[in-house]
Amino acid sequence: MTLDSAQDPALTAAADLAADPGNPAEGTVDGTAASTGDSDSTDMSDTADSSDTATELAIQTRNFSIRNRRRTVIGGINLDLPIGALLLVSGRFASGKTALLLALAGRLRGFAGTATVLGHPLRGGGGQVRHLSALAETPIVNRLDDDLTVERQLAAALVLRQPWWKPVVSHKAVVLCLIRVNEVLRLVDARAGALLGSGTAGLPRLTGTDRIADLQPLDRAALGVVVALIGRPRLLIVDDVDTLRDTDDRTRVWAALLTLRMAGWHDLTIAASGQDPKELLEILDGIGGEPAPARPVYLLDLDSDERTVTALTGKA
Questions:
Q1: Cα distance between residue 161 and residue 17, in whole Å
Q2: The pTM is what?
Q3: 66 and 110 in contact (C-beta within 8 Å)?
Q4: What is the reported pLDDT for 116?
Q5: Is 2 part of any domain?
Q6: Is residue 219 part of a domain?
Q7: Domain count within the chain
Q8: CATH classification of the domain holding 231
Q9: I want to staple 40 with a disulfide (CB 3.0 to 4.6 A). Which of 130, 221, 280, 289 is the partner?
Q10: Helix segments in the chain, DSSP class H
Q11: 159, 169 Cβ separation under 8 angstroms
């Protein structure tokens, strides 16, 4: 199957995920009671054209190590990740995958070596990195609130993009955001389905009145990603895809992540983790000799002694 690497105008609707919620109006939704986990996310509508940044690196590390008081958790990581790439960090349980991703997103201290993320050094520039990156749901950092409904979680995410003195958004803004979220999910579902050789990939649609505690695992994962994307980050972190126990669900997620990077709204780089790259490798093998995904895919295996980065695809 061929995955068209040209910009799909329909998929530019993803940019509307960060629509201006407008002034608080009658029927406002208080978003201050919930945390979407990333108050540092910001609107990146002024990011540079891809033509200007095509040769730049999203992440570059040299001899990058993470340490705690007792031992070195990860040592000697050297990365050169282009803007727009997908990086899969694989490794067994407790191999340091989450620690590495959090560090690269500016959320973890205690590292040695050098790292530059989206043009900013992690040492001394962590604030800028946090503004340019966002985390999908990562339970130890930004767990979705099980007591909220989907629309109230979206409201909280919208509130975090507003000035501190505007702690509410209108119900109309939340409803409009949910409509746009589901439209993006529909479009990504169709594109991911084409990648998998089927009509659709089977991604969910979100219902505003559903309680987060009642969501199916794939629905919850989708919500965690779209909440992160509301701030238009340039780096998206998706930790532990293996949280999804169903093999088909993991395949859907990998196909969706491959598709998100081709949405055309900005140069989105994705760093994700999982214990086994099997599902992603099967998708890429299914493409065969036809054009590779429009952005390169890399694998960092933390279980290997060398911990080298392998290019799984090149740019089409």
A1: 12
A2: 0.82
A3: yes
A4: 96
A5: no
A6: yes
A7: 1
A8: 3.40.50.300
A9: 130
A10: 50-53, 97-104, 122-132, 139-142, 150-159, 171-196, 217-229, 247-260, 278-287
A11: yes
Residue with the larger pLDDT of the pair 228 and 286 = 228
Hey, what amino acid is at 101? L
Mean pLDDT of the chain: 81
Q: CA-CA distance, 187 to 191, in Å (whole number)?
A: 6
Give Cα separations from 129 to 81, 103, 122, 251, 306 (angstroms).
15, 10, 7, 29, 27
Task: Write the burial class of residue 98 (CB in 10 Å: 0-12 exposed, 13-18 middle, 19+ buried).
Answer: buried
Q: Which residue has the tokens 């730049």?
A: 56
The verdict on residue 140 lying in a domain is yes
Write the pLDDT tens digit of every residue in 26-63.
344 444 333 334 433 333 333 334 334 434 899 999 99
- In Å, what is the CA distance from 98 to each residue of 92, 129, 161? 11, 17, 25
Distance CA 295, CA 143 (A): 29
**Is residue 4 a part of any domain in this protein?**
no
| Domain region containing 37 | 9-44+52-311
Instruction: Give the pLDDT of residue 239.
Output: 96
